[in-house]
Design goal:
Layout lengths: L1 H11 L10 H16 L13
Length: 51
């Protein structure tokens, strides 16, 4: 019974504090952020000067 509650809470129930996604989906999105940053451009990051 506890396992059924855990699965419902983590895999089915949407959570308002997490932007109305499941805990599982939120965790997976957070884990993908570093990969997205690492796959960015190889160019130096500099501020563009005005003018």
């Amino acid at each position: 019974m506890l396992e059924a509650w855990r699965r419902d809470c983590n895999e089915e129930r949407l959570h308002s504090k997490l932007g109305w996604v499941t805990s599982w989906a939120y965790d997976n999105a957070i884990l993908e952020i570093p990969a997205a940053i690492d796959n960015g451009s190889n160019h130096d990051r500099t501020l563009a000067s005005a003018g």
